[in-house]
């Protein structure tokens, strides 16, 4: 593994859209290195997120309530960003990766690497939480693993819609929730606007996920993430819950796969159209305005220098 | 939209009270640019805020409690500041804009632009939340959209006073709540005192809104914001709740319009009178005191340089 | 009020123990300036703190629970530090002022100014909250203002011990709670250890107050502050609750006056004895060690320069 | 105690793996200095943690719920890091010390000093909380100190497994919880990745502990710390709960002693294997890559300089 070491800078370059030609072996190693980090951060995020649901469900309210689940995923995402931040960007979400590719922040050839790594981390996390909470789950449901009913436990792993929700309503819910996620992520990382503080990005992204859970969570459990949802769903299908995990909610399973990437592009595009497009380009700034009011553009310049390598 | 680009610095100048004469077309473009940002950040704040109320009301406590609503508006405001911060200042509140104009931090000619943008964002957010929670709301109230009663849902969108509250009591409540908001906002952005950390302003303002919800919220739902309250109220009047949204609470609707601007000016004025007026002017500092104790004023100078472009 | 302006630097000097001789009129003005800031920050802290209790009590759980009160005082303290931080140090607590005087961080002659300002701010806050929640309180208790019983409301303003608590137990509780407050405050502001982040001090102090409420609050309501407790108690005695506010809890009222200053000195002294005394003096560091390992002491030096004017 | 002063830099050196030969007397003093700080920060963390449990148990829900306990330990850890951070590193946990020794971040000869200091602080904290909550505990349980049953109070001090949990399941739970703790701690302090913000480390570690309590706490109370668990357990055995504290949970007491060190090494090792090993060494960076893309490695270099003395 020692020969991965030399390809560190490549990841940074790619994320910033710079194209450096390098030996084939470096690219390959970079893929593994990024993939490992993306898998690990997704795994950590999912372990904490699913763990918080398991604790609320099996504890029947004695060990946390709905807010605990919001905090579990929020802080799980924050820890994930600490773990994968500088190496893979810690997407942990295929809709984020898809949006980044769409707007040129990630090479499309990296997309399958990200999706595979996220699926792997998410699947392993589902298995881990099942193992850690095995006795709790079986004690809670009497060994009867069901998708619906008062002692249903499939919701620990994947999302299911509220009884009143139509597929169309759920589709809109998932498109909109992911749009808000990506719209705010764009703002949090926009160095020409008011981005998250340097070093405070993980917590800022965590607070955003907390907010979505608090405000846009009750319709269908705010998956807003294809890879977060499908991998644990497949795990539960295998581990004993059966094909009901795909049938339940009028065949809900495909909605968190299809809707989030659409929403992500819409939300990020909206931020770009209404805010980012209207920032002054740095070349313009350097040429025209700074001659008129030099001292005012200095802080902006300085900030850019400080934050240039920050990528949420 | 490409020609908006050159007018970036104007917004910064205006906020700092510097008057730069520029071609008419720039001003016009600047208005649109600022208006777009102010609309978008108000929209995002309101979507998250109203969404959190919708979730608590329709979930009947299973998806959050009163604290969730406090967090929804608090973090919604924080995200709004991230989105509009450097472009429009992210007021998201006509009482804030009114106070900024009163104390010369915003040109009065910008006031209608801010108010219109806030109303637009707020109205669209109400419509969005009604669409996203359409099935949830109709499932909850059986399709019967009411302003009062056990299954009332108008409170998802606009504020209504507690049963015991008189109009005078409510007026005082709204004047005082907004006064505390602006008093603290002045402190959070006072670079000669102990302002919010650089990059931490959005969360600091969010914590302030959380605090007001926790401490000054139960009388009438802490609107403390005319544009936040009236736009969703008009939306509900149109969307099916009818004229009761204006009749309810003994004609409550005008209080969140009139009281907050008064409170805002009082609160900001109080901070100015008791604290800000007594700061040493920088010219004085530069001339007199620094000769006596040079090293002590250096940190203050440095801090000013670092934070000069921070405007909450 | 314009002539207060020139005395700005004096406050900074005094807090750092530097003794600069200046015209008598400046000293006098400085007292007023510091007093105004200390009154205002205490007022704001108390308004938010007492407001959160009023909301929980009169809302009977619908507008927050015990945690809301913890958050109300915690974030109220944070806002107070933003407001008074650079001018008075934002003690908002006579036990903090007493401890600072004891350890030479504040001149004893300033002590009465601080105590008077805190009492004034605290008393006015009690009056304000009574006005703002007047209808809520009277609706809740049917106009019958009592200190004990199921509809008691005196606890909105001052602290009262739990039924099981003896005066000795309560005395220990208040000494210990204040000791933990000052012990941690010393650490948060110790620039040679790991202090709160620059700009993050208000929130750090707020989290400390939140923690004390969560961990050391149930015995007697964690006054840990003489001026926070006695001023609202006197207000309630005058405003209609009568002399019971002094009789209740077996004459509890004097405990939050006497115990906190003792605890504060013990806690701060413990930190000094176990940690601060063993820091290397800067003169030593500059002379001896830096020659052996120069690069290691540089960060410490740099940190000192950055944080020199930070005083929680 | 004055002669401790000169050995300040030694602690820093040892934590960074630099070996400086110094007079025997300095080493000895350094041990005392580090031991005092480690005892004090463990004491403070445990006082706040145990206090929050005491408040929830004796208050029967009126003074906080499960989330309060999560917050009590989380913020207690944050305050502990502020107190011991620069002197001992504020491990407050023998599993953390064991892992640091395993990976060469702490000399093995320091291990007994850390463990003894942690045990001392933890034991004294248990005694303090018993004294402060003496009347509350005896009022709650009617003076009958029991380990099991509806009025059991032993759980205020040490952890006990859920009724459904086998020793194997609990062992896995404790290995895994501690693995997640150390995995994330490694990321939070990895200066080549996205570490906690400078000055924000205490809160970041606190959020991690909050997260573990929310996600991995219900099986057995997330001791994830041998010294946190055994010292209060011994205290309760002596103070009146008797030998049941060792018999309960099928002889649970040894699990929080043995499992956490194993988990800590596994978790930290996993982060090293998947992320840290693949960072580019600074020497490589300085030689090879910087010539190709100089400006890109500058932020990394700068960050290293700023954060070099930060050790969570």
TrEMBL record, chains A, B, C, D:
InterPro entries: Aquaporin-like, MIP, MIP/Aquaporin. SUPFAM superfamilies: Aquaporin-like (SSF81338). The chain crosses the membrane at residues 34-57, 63-83, 114-133, 164-188, 195-216, 251-271. It is a multi-pass membrane protein. It is found in: Membrane. GO terms for cellular component: basolateral plasma membrane. Keywords: Membrane, Transmembrane, Transmembrane helix, Transport. GO terms for molecular function: glycerol channel activity; urea transmembrane transporter activity; water channel activity. Belongs to the MIP/aquaporin (TC 1.A.8) family. This is Aquaporin 7.
């Amino acid at each position: 593994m020692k020969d991965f070491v030399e390809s560190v800078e490549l990841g940074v370059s790619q994320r910033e859209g710079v194209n450096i030609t390098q030996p084939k072996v470096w690219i390959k190693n970079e893929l593994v290195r990024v993939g490992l980090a993306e898998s690990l951060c997704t795994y950590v995020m999912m372990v904490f997120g699913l763990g918080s649901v398991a604790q609320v469900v099996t504890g029947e309210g004695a060990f946390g309530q709905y807010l605990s689940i919001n905090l579990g995923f929020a802080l799980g995402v924050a820890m994930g960003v600490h773990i994968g931040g500088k190496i893979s960007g810690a997407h942990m979400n295929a809709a984020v990766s898809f949006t980044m590719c769409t707007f040129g922040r990630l090479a499309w050839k990296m997309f399958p690497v990200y999706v595979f790594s996220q699926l792997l981390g998410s699947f392993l996390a589902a298995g881990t939480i099942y193992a850690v909470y095995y006795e709790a789950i079986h004690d809670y449901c009497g060994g009867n693993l069901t998708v619906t009913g008062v002692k249903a436990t499939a919701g620990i792993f994947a999302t299911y819609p509220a009884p009143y929700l139509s597929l169309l309503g759920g589709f809109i819910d998932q498109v909109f929730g992911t749009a808000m996620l990506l719209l705010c992520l764009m703002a949090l990382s926009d160095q020409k606007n008011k981005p998250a503080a340097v070093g405070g990005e993980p917590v800022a992204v965590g607070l955003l996920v907390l907010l979505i859970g608090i405000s846009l969570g009750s319709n269908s459990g705010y998956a807003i993430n294809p890879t977060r949802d499908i991998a644990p769903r497949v795990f539960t299908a295998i581990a004993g819950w059966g094909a009901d995990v795909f049938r339940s909610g009028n065949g809900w399973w495909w909605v968190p796969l299809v809707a989030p990437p659409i929403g992500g592009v819409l939300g990020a595009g909206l931020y770009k159209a209404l805010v980012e497009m209207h920032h002054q380009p740095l070349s313009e700034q350097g040429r025209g305005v700074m001659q008129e009011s030099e001292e005012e553009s200095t802080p902006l310049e300085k900030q850019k220098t400080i934050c240039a390598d920050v990528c949420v």
